[in-house]
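Hello Y.,

Per our agreement to keep a running log of every chain we model this quarter, I'm adding this entry. I've kept the format consistent with earlier entries: sequence first, then predicted structure.
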Amino acid sequence: MATCSYTVPDKNVTGDNFYGASICNQTYIDYFWNSYGFSGNKDYWDDGFGWEDACNTDKPLARTFNACYLLTYSAQDYENDAYSGAMLNWARRYVRDNCDDLRSLCGDGSANATSFTGPFTDDRIELYLGFWYSKDVPSRAETLIHESRHQGGKPHNANFPAGSVFGAGRSGADSDWGYEGAWMYGALYLWWFYAQGARTTSALRERARQRGNLVIDNAFATHPGFNI
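Predicted structure for the entry above:
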């Protein structure tokens, strides 16, 4: 990652130390690599991004694996990923079903992640430095869900409201909760994680609640009318 510059935040606060204690297992590494869109993309995950050092939670690959672990195992009955159940159960399935090309790049600082999809497009999700170094593990899981929702055919359809921390008046918002767009999927997952997340800590569940409310208050042209 010679062309990238980053600072690793407090890994106790972000949850990387907590989840990093679990991911350094070849069974998990193989499952995440083959299930969440990494497979076939070694060239995007080596040269400093962590392919050769998959347990090092200072590096992007392990920090992404932490989010995959959270997605996979946060439901108490995680083996049940039926879409008829709670989102805490099926979010991992949704990401698996819609994210088949996950790439790591430095980025230019304008976004934490971007989804590319459409006619004559190489459908893919790109992750940038902000994804790994400005977000905690629950928020990274939210981002994977968010970008997978775009891959699933839901673009943003509105401008951010007045006062939004995401940029009032610019495009990138969802019209409302009922649109069931990327922001709704991300916030709903964080809500479920806060309410019922297993194999985590109370501090990370609270961080998920705070992030969920930030999304609810800032990412919809029409406020949903509730908070977590």
